[in-house]
Amino acid sequence: MKTSAEWIALSELVTLQGRAFIAGQFRSAVSGETFPAINPATEQKLTDVASCDAADVDMAVSAAREAFVSGVWSDLAPGDRKRILLRLADLVEKHGDELAVLDSLDMGKPISEMVGIDVPDSIDCLRWTAESIDKLYGEIAPTGNDTLGLISHEPAGVVAAITPWNYPLMMAIWKIAPALAAGNSVILKPSEKSALSVLRLAELGKKAGIPDGVFSVLPGFGHTAGKALALHNDVDVLAFTGSSRVGGLLMEYAGQSNLKRVWIEAGGKSPMLVFEDCEDIEKAASMAAAAIFSNQGEVCIACSRLYVQSSIRERFTEALLEAAKAYQPQDPLHPDTRMGALVDKAQLETVARYIQLAIDEGGQVLTGGVPEAVPGQGYFVEPTIIGEAHNGMRFVQEEIFGPVLAVGEFSDEAEAIHLANDNRYGLGASVWTGNLSRAHRVSRKIQSGMVWVNGWGGGDSTMPFGGVKASGYGRDKSLHALEKYTDLKTVWISL
Ligand code: NAD
To answer: Is Cell cycle tagged as a keyword (predicted)?
Structure first.
């Protein structure tokens, strides 16, 4: 791991490319409009970013369609696409520190998380998906001897991926890896709050050998580039990660246009349940702190609702408060920093509003509190823990997307399950118990796409990632991700 001085030196050297990448070239938006990329830790402008709209979307979609129809990528043997994607993985690895710095500067994430999570996970996802694509077979249907029924997976065509700002590189790769591996042309629309790393990724894609037009990146405000992509009649699949509100809008846009398939991976308000038979309270408390304070709580699977069995609540809360001390917000580029800056002023204000609401609703501030913004000093918030929380409070029900933890309690297993499920979201859940039967019983009953037992956030490229209820229904990673980007084709041959 580099020292703080080395990271700062690298941050001064990296190229800040803000132009869109369409048909193999960097270009300004057709309108010439830009918006600033701001470093949330310093409030300084990093660079200007192209503000793409419908005109740029038209250009990218027609380049993507042309490439798809030409077969320059879609007709390659899977093994050939694999080799190019493996080269891209190697380039991401080679330029990992540079990509890490770009995201850290752009959205305030601790550099240690970029180096420890985002970059290695992105490389692994690219490699795992690339390696899988030439090992998947079609099917032959069990027909009579006078026919041959073939069932194959075909690339869907032009895929638009719209991604959020909290894991800019990783969220993008979770979508583009399977979409490209399956043979599609892909247009990535990153969040306006963190577009820099994926613009560099587009350049690396070209260097790896991805043909022009097959992978474009269009930065732009959601209601311009994102909406134009979602309404476009020549986009076949829309893969989205972001808020449940915008996910709902995208489903409407698909209905208003060509019924493109829309995959939604949306928000969360994940519960953590700690039972009195938990075998290691200190470990659970330390994980409870990590589950809400890493990446400043700007994590879709953040366990923002903690329910502890009444008999161990006091002991657990003590251990939790101790663990939270490690998350004092600091310069994201310092290698020891475990909590950086919130992404922007609007996010800081949202978090401040929710902490005030928690107090007004009767919550008890155990540590942290309403942040006071000091102009020019960055958007930092103390780790905040609110006790006396219950499900009747708005701050316990709504996604805050910041370092704010609600702590409530339960008396028995049935109540724990009820409290966990009493929420509109269903992304993840963490359960702490030493009782194997309880671990299985509770995991089955919890309404969420993912459950972690005696841990939080575990998973790798082999496991699907996604939710239920208002958290959406799409799945990233694993072979299941490929289903989003392929169509089933049947061919019935009379013999
Ligand atoms: P957001 O919904 O505001 O924006 C997501 C993307 O949609 C951005 O690229 C944005 O520019 C674009 N967008 C916004 N309005 C649009 C519109 N009208 N039409 C088309 N595109 C539009 O979400 P965000 O604030 O960037 O990200 C935070 C959210 O993402 C949280 O709710 C978080 O839980 C969720 N998230 C979910 C997962 C998951 O895997 N389920 C992962 C990460 C983040």
So the answer is: no
Classify residue 217: in a domain, yes or no: yes
**In 3D, which of 347, 27, 81 has the Cα closest to residue 219?**
27
Asked if residue 59 lies in contact with residue 255, where contact means CB atoms within 8 angstroms, the answer is no
- Separation of alpha carbons 418 and 415, rounded Å: 5
Listed in sequence order, the residues at least 6 apart from 362 whose beta carbon sits closer than 8 Å to its beta carbon are 388, 393
Tell whether 422 and 295 lie within a shared domain: yes
Q: How far apart are CA 243 and CA 72, in angstroms?
A: 35
Hey, whose CA ends up nearest to atom 18 of ligand 1? 223
- Which CATH number characterizes residue 124's domain? 3.40.605.10
- Is position 491 within any domain? no
Query: Can you give the pTM of this predicted structure?
Result: 0.98
CA gyration radius for the chain?
23
Domain that holds residue 93: 4-266
Who lines ligand 1 at CB under 6 A?
Answer: 162-166, 171, 189, 191-192, 222-223, 226-227, 230, 241-243, 246, 249-250, 265-268, 300, 399, 401, 427, 467, 471-472
* Residue 466 in domain: no
In eight-state DSSP terms, residue 185 is E
Examine the domain organization and report whether 368 and 426 are in the same domain: yes
Could you tell me the distance, in angstroms and rounded to a whole number, from the CA of residue 402 to the centre of ligand 1? 15
Quick check: is 494 in a domain?
no
Quick: pLDDT tens for 415-424.
999 999 999 9
Mind listing the pLDDT tens digit for each residue in 306-351? 999 999 999 999 999 999 999 999 999 999 999 999 999 999 999 9
For residues 234 and 346, membership in a common domain is answered with no
- The C-alpha atoms of residue 106 and residue 191 are separated, in whole angstroms, by 11
Whether residue 260 is found in the same domain as residue 293? no
Ordered DSSP codes for 264-331? EE----EEEEE-TT-S-HHHHHHHHHHHHHGGGG--TT-EEEEEEEGGGHHHHHHHHHHHHGGG-B--
